[in-house]
Amino acid sequence: MPKPTQPSPRETVHTVTADSLVTVDFSPRFEGRSRSRPRRRPPGPYRRLFALPGARAFTAGNLLARLPMGMFSVSAVVMIAGSRGSYALAGAVTATGLAATGLAGPWIARLVDRYGQARVAVPATVTAVLGSLALLLCVRYGAPDWTLFAAYAATATTPNLGGMSRARWAHLLRDDPGALHTANSFEQAADELCFMLGPVLASFLTGTFFPEAGTLVGAVLLLTGALLFAAQRATEPPSRTGTAGARTPLRIGPLLVCFVATGAVFGSMEVVTIAYADAQGHRSAAGAVLALQAAGSCAAGLLYGALRPAGPAERRLPVCLLSMAALMSLPLLAARAVDSLWALAPALLVAGMATAPTMVTAMTLVQDRTPEGRLNEGMSLVVTALLTGIACGSALGGWAADHVSPTAAFVTPAAAAVAALAVHTASRIASPNSRRAH
Question: Architecture of domain 249-438 in CATH?
């Protein structure tokens, strides 16, 4: 009896049953279709964000230009104190630059809104870079002290590149609130990363090469990044030259007060932590401990951006402020209970996790309340409020560390966080119409 043969790959077997005729196709084409293909996972929110045309290009230039923001102050202090032998002079020069930035920032941003980012940011950046180079030369060749103040004040023309980046996202994602939330979270994490890596890079450059190296490298990075950012014209928001005369009021007054209190949290925590580490005999470790706070904020910001926002920003902000007020008490509890810098470190890491979600939500609310044609101006006012709060917080934290104790001084950032919550709560009670509107 001949053995049954298997059907060839191109043959078809017909099986007749009582009910129907079933055709089984053994061709390779059928076998290919019969396999179940694995489903592709949908791209994550950050991958979708940077899939937008031009997003990666303007982000790369912006990050390169923002990194020096954490370098210039440290570099200037090291450069001036090393040459003139006076930390008081170095601190006064940097404080003058900080005050000048707070005054000039909103005016530069207003010009950006009116004439466009590229037309204003490039000459403003060139002026700031020339001011940094002038400071370097004045220190190098022993110019009079007043020239240091004049040169460093010229750096106040540095445009708010973080605000301009947020304005681009707001323009690109104006019809997608969820993606805009992710973009704002990324920008806040980028701020934390730049201010965490900037001082480290500046310290490395000034200590490894020569005192002016940090300022020189920072100026090159700022100019290069700003030029790359400005070259991406396709993603630039349109200027509002035609509507410049319509001075639509900015409805962010109470928010600015809230940002002042939040800035006081940052400024006081930095000074108090340094004072506490000095009292513990570990002043050199203060920078690493503070970096943990920034790292916690950066990680929380990225995670917060990956989550879908629950409800409008107006409802989320009180929750974020309450969380920040609660977590800012952890450093105080750790310092009092254990009295060790190594116990303070994890407390700062956890406390930092509340700041990025708070800043992201507050920035979203600023975007909601600011007219589209004045967004850069609104963002710059926020930066001015933060700088004001940082200066006030540094002064209060330093006073508490000197006149009370470094341990008890941790009350200062906790009190500032409670003040931010109280200000926002009071503004909501005073303005029920805005609460219903959101």
Answer: Up-down Bundle (1.20)
